[in-house]
């Protein structure tokens, strides 16, 4: 779908009569347009002329009507269940989630179902079922052959249930009871599951997989992505030009990672540390598990696989998940909030549950993931892994090994952040001469790196070499432009920085010509702004420095 209206968006809709009539007319003309149903439900929910309960009843009624025509749409089911959950003491909510998953399985519905459960055993089982579902989606990508016949049979059963959802305000309690009874009939076997469906369940080994089988809309896209995108396997697949398939594959990979982390978090929160570690070892292929163990290594991108390795190292070392990975305001297992912020901060020896040599060996194994795929996204996490290893060595006063590790990385890859890490190691040893040498080597390789330039000039400034720092910042900005030697003396360095950063005042004057290959998006580079502000500070323009920092 091009766009989906979320519950948070409903404030943008008002119950204007003209709009309401137009919306309902459009739905009558095209009842399969789920976006219109979602929008109409949002309008009903935000009706200022009715009580909150009346608005909720009407919105649910609209969604029930929408599900009658689109019972296989997970977005309608998700909004329906999210709103239905607002009723106080909704005891049958997990059963309703099961119904939704039977007819429109999706990751968001599985997560909603998982969130509604209370006990460890229930949550742990549903985590496994969700991972099986995601694995099934990946398999459908490889062998897109779901049965349309099965879907039609399910649709027939869904009609009966959805009729009970189609209610007017005030009818909810009776309808709920009838729906609950209908769900109970299905679960108790009164609604016969046909032979083909049961055989399919037996082949897989889990009846719950019936709920995961569908002719998914994302199947063809994932098929292309699985064939062409970079995944965690040992072979290097061909790259695809299909942007949509790459996005779909990355989304699926993130969902698998998120559910694995949820299961780990669930075990850690309930004191099952050994279970969490054992599960991680199986999904990473470090130990052989049951034949049904999810093959995560071949289902996620290599970037996500590196994240999972960092999670494993952290759990082994501290028996807890890395900070900032999940919502810090919620102590319970939940969604991954910022995997790009994952770090392994080694601060004290006393808190470690594993020896340093064992942890270093795990770093070595994790590094092999990056060595087979040196793409930009994976490199971001590889740098974090290198920094983690160096920090661990420094904690145990193994400075020489830390320097050798940095140098070994730099011998075949010129990564800016590793140069800075190397400089930090020398700085911690009070070796200022080697700090300068490392930064000079780095700049000879990365001539246009504003990050390296800023830290080198900042170091000069802190050591009292103000004139040298100022001169280098001036030469740095000039290096981006095609300026003849006779014009160098007349250069306005502030104007050149303003031009690179696309400041309005720069274009009121004569602009210089950029050199070929210089990016036109340097205004998005925070370190270029920092170079400019440091230049202004070195020139004694403190007021201008504050203004520049505010603009950045």
Question: Can you tell me the overall shape?
Answer: globular
The N- and C-terminal alpha carbons lie at a distance of 36 Å
Radius of gyration: 29 Å
Give the rounded overall mean pLDDT: 80
Taken in chain order, the helices and strands follow as HHHHHHHHHHHHHHHHHHHHHHHH
> Could you say which structural class the secondary elements and strand pairing correspond to?
mainly alpha
Q: How can the largest sheet be summarized?
A: none
Number of domains: 3
Estimate percent helicity: 55-70%
Strand content: under 5%
Helix count from the secondary structure assignment:
24
Low-confidence stretches: 143-161, 163-229, 234-241
Q: What's the count of strands? A: 0
Outline:
With 552 residues, the chain is an all-alpha fold. The protein contains 24 helices and no strands.
Describe this structure in words.
This protein is an all-alpha fold. It folds into 3 domains: 1-220, no CATH class; 242-395, no CATH class; 475-552, no CATH class. Helix content is 62%, strand content 0%. The protein has 24 helices and no strands. Helix 16 (376-395) packs parallel to helix 18 (416-428), helix 17 (399-410) packs antiparallel against helix 18 (416-428) and helix 23 (526-538) runs antiparallel to helix 24 (542-551).
């Amino acid at each position: 779908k091009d766009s989906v209206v979320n519950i948070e968006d409903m404030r943008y809709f008002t119950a204007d009569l003209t709009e309401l009539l137009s919306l309902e007319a459009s739905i009558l003309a095209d009842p399969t347009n789920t976006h219109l149903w979602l929008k109409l439900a949002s309008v009903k929910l935000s009706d200022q002329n009715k009580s909150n309960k009346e608005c909720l009843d009407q919105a649910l009624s609209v969604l029930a009507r929408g599900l009658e025509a689109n019972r296989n749409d997970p977005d309608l089911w998700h909004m329906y269940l999210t709103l239905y959950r607002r009723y106080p003491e909704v005891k049958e909510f997990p059963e309703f989630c099961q119904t939704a998953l039977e007819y429109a399985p999706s990751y968001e519905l599985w997560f909603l179902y998982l969130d509604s459960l209370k006990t460890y055993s229930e949550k742990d089982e549903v985590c496994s079922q969700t991972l099986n579902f995601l694995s099934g989606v990946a398999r459908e990508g490889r062998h897109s052959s779901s049965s349309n016949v099965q879907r039609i049979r399910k649709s027939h059963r869904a009609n009966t249930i959805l009729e009970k959802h189609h209610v007017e305000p005030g009818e909810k309690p009776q309808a709920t009871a009838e729906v609950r009874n209908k769900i109970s009939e299905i679960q108790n076997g009164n609604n016969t599951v046909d032979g083909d469906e049961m055989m399919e369940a037996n082949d897989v080994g889990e009846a719950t997989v019936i709920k995961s089988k569908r002719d998914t809309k994302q199947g063809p896209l994932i098929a292309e992505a699985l064939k062409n995108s970079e995944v965690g396997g040992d072979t290097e697949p061909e790259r695809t030009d299909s942007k949509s398939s790459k996005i779909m594959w990355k989304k699926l990979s993130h969902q698998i990672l998120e559910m694995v982390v949820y299961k780990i978090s669930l075990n850690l929160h309930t004191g099952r540390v050994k279970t969490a570690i054992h599960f991680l070892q199986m999904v990473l292929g470090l130990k052989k598990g049951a034949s049904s163990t999810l093959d995560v290594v071949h289902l996620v991108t290599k970037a996500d696989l590196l994240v999972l390795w960092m999670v494993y190292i952290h759990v082994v070392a501290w028996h807890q998940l890395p900070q900032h990975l999940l919502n810090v305001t919620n102590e319970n297992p939940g969604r991954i909030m910022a995997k790009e912020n994952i770090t392994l901060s080694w601060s004290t020896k006393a808190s470690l549950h594993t020896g340093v040599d064992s942890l270093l060996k795990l770093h070595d194994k994790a590094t092999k993931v990056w060595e087979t795929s040196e793409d930009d996204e994976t490199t971001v996490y590889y740098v974090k892994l290198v920094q983690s290893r160096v920090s661990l060595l420094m904690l145990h006063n193994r400075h020489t090994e830390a320097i050798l590790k940095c140098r070994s990385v730099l011998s075949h890859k010129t990564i800016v952040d590793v140069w800075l890490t190397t400089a930090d190691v020398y700085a911690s040893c009070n070796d200022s001469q080697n700090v300068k040498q490392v930064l000079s080597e780095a700049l000879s390789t990365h001539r246009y790196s504003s990050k390296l330039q800023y830290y080198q000039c900042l170091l000069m400034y802190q050591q009292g070499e103000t004139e040298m720092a100022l001169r280098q910042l001036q030469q740095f900005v000039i290096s981006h432009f095609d300026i003849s030697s006779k014009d160098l003396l007349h250069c306005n360095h502030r104007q050149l920085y303003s031009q690179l950063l696309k400041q309005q005042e720069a274009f009121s004057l004569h602009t210089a010509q950029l050199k070929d290959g210089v990016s036109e998006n340097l205004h998005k580079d925070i370190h270029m702004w920092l170079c400019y502000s440091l230049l202004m500070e070195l020139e004694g323009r403190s007021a201008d420095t504050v203004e520049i920092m505010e603009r950045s």
